[in-house]
Inverse folding.
């Protein structure tokens, strides 16, 4: 797969997923009580269209800026990211919804953890490019980038009770550090320590333990903690192979909580059937493979690591969301990229597409492969 084919594949998959998201938000969001009383721009569909448009404009703007330009602001971006994550706990600024303190309100309400995804991938890419020769050392290859630069913001996200985002981000960081040259046994040690801490957090919280029990037997908890996953399973079963038809799903009418956000994949399974839900999985897989292919073909170390990180921050949230909805994993509350109704997540995920495009457009060797005539003129007229 060439670099040009990779970026075209990324955009095609992204647009298809975004369009599907708009269609499904229109189908599921309209069933939420009170939507008919709001102006169009205040409905879930209106917001999805507005945020999607904003994200595309941002992505196009980022694609025109050389991705290496952002290396100048890595330190400032990391500090701002940490400050915004800390603001989630400040009275009057931080907002707690459903027991989770992942939002802040500064004129507009948004989730700093979504900005953190891009910022931390940028930070790790810059660090391992700067200290490329020391990636295998203990301090500069593992402790400083893993425990401090990446670990501190990750802990803040975890303390916000945003375990879904923290898990997806941890997996993305693991992939970046492994590919960058961090010793594998150090990463395994980090996974062991993280597993112990996760176990302590789970067993120390009755609410989390209840979620685990509900995940193990959703039917037994179908009227309580396991309701979402049990109804999601019924949605897939009702959809069968071809689905009941767009707009004809019934579980979105109050039976399935958050059918337009975290559990929108279940409605895709009900209305589009196995073929539709499998198609979503295929699109995310193609998008990720294309992102990895772009990373492999990028000769610049910074661009290669950054492209890998951005691809992972799209892939892992998508996989975790679909695994939660299909009851493979316990319920964590994570949106499906490009499809779930939302603002911050949608805008920053689309922004990642723009940054991937920038890597393809502003890497000289890649460009030489696709503009042979322009390259020939440059050689003839230096």
């Amino acid at each position: 797969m060439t670099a040009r084919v990779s970026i075209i594949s990324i955009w095609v998959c992204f647009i298809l997923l975004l369009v599907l998201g708009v269609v499904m938000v229109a189908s599921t969001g309209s069933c939420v009580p009170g939507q008919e009383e709001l102006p169009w721009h205040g409905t879930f569909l209106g917001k999805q269209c507005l945020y999607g448009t904003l994200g595309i404009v941002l992505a196009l703007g980022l694609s025109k800026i050389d991705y290496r330009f952002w290396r100048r602001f890595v330190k400032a971006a990391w500090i701002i990211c940490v400050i915004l994550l800390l603001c989630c706990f400040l009275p009057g600024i931080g907002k707690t919804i459903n027991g989770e303190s992942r939002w802040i309100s500064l004129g507009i309400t948004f989730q700093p953890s979504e900005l953190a995804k891009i910022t931390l991938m940028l930070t790790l890419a810059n660090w391992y490019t700067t200290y490329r020769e020391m990636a295998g050392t203990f301090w500069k290859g593992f402790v400083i980038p893993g425990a401090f630069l990446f670990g501190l913001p990750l802990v803040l996200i975890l303390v916000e009770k945003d375990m879904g985002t923290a898990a997806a981000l941890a997996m993305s960081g693991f992939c970046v550090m492994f590919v960058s040259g961090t010793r594998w046994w150090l990463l395994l040690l980090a996974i062991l320590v993280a597993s112990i801490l996760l176990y302590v957090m789970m067993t120390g919280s009755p609410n989390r333990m209840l979620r685990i029990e509900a995940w193990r037997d959703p039917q037994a908890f179908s009227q309580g903690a396991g309701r979402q996953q049990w109804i999601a399973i019924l949605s897939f079963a009702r959809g069968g192979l071809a689905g009941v038809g767009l707009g004809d799903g019934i579980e979105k009418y109050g039976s399935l909580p958050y059918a337009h956000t975290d559990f929108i994949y279940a409605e895709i399974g009900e209305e589009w059937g196995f073929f539709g839900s499998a198609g979503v999985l295929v699109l995310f897989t193609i998008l990720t493979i294309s992102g990895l292919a772009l990373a492999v073909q990028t000769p610049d170390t910074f661009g290669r690591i950054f492209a890998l990180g951005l691809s992972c921050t799209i892939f892992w949230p998508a996989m975790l969301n679909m695994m939660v909805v299909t009851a493979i994993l316990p319920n964590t509350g994570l949106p499906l990229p490009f499809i779930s109704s939302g603002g911050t997540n949608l805008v920053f995920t689309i922004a990642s597409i723009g940054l991937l495009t920038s890597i393809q457009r502003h890497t000289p060797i890649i460009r030489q492969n696709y503009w042979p005539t322009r390259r020939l003129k440059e050689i003839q007229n230096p």
In short: The chain has a mean pLDDT of 89. The first strand starts at residue 94 and ends at 97. Residues 243 and 273 are 4 Å apart (CA to CA).
